[in-house]
Design brief:
The protein has 180 residues and is of the alpha+beta class. 19% of the residues lie in helices and 33% in strands. The protein starts with 5 loop residues before the first strand and ends with a helix. The mean pLDDT is 86.
């Protein structure tokens, strides 16, 4: 599966080549501490070799990813439907991935591992917050526990100041230590 995303760029013939694979949760949970509980994503990668050192990647991913809801921690299925284009150029001796549209790889690389690119493409397509759209879909027991720990009002700093001195009592304690 992931080996299909390792492109032999030195020996790749000119023209367009298609790689198709299916990725699951193990694909996402190997690199980072991102909790993907389940994944069912189909990946299509079209690689076009334009010249000796220039390639174009078209990545298309579709399926679902299951992550924990940020509110109740129950499973939340998120749809994945994302396309990403990237030009790859072999030159020099340093990897340069600072540009979103151009990846520069060292000219002595024989293979390009597209798995991190596919992983990032899918994960960046997910919303920043993972919550059920409707709070009624969340786990009621967890929401009850959260509600029981809710603080109605945070005490204001001005309320903590001493009425006689007009200063915070903690500062008074520090002044006494300084005077000793």
């Amino acid at each position: 599966m992931v080996n299909a995303l390792k492109l032999k760029i030195k020996t790749l013939p000119f023209g367009t080549h298609t790689v198709e694979c299916h990725v699951d949760e193990s694909f996402f949970n190997t690199e980072e501490q991102i909790e993907v509980r389940r994944a069912d994503v189909n990946v299509t990668l079209e690689v076009t070799r334009k010249s000796e050192d220039t390639f174009h990647l078209e990545i298309s991913c579709s399926g679902t990813v299951t992550v924990p809801c940020d509110r109740c921690l129950d499973d939340l299925d998120l749809p994945v439907d994302v396309d990403y284009s990237l030009n790859v150029e072999q030159m020099g001796t340093e990897l340069d991935d600072t540009n979103d549209e151009l990846l520069i790889v060292p000219s002595d690389w024989r293979e390009l591992d597209a798995a991190p690119i596919v992983r990032d493409t899918v994960l960046l397509s997910l919303p920043m917050t993972h919550c059920h759209e409707n709070e009624d879909d969340c786990n009621a027991a967890v929401l009850g526990v959260l509600e029981s720990h809710r603080v109605e009002a945070v005490p204001d700093v001005d309320d903590q100041q001493s009425e006689t001195t007009g200063t915070d009592p903690r500062w008074e304690a520090l002044k006494k230590l300084k005077e000793q």
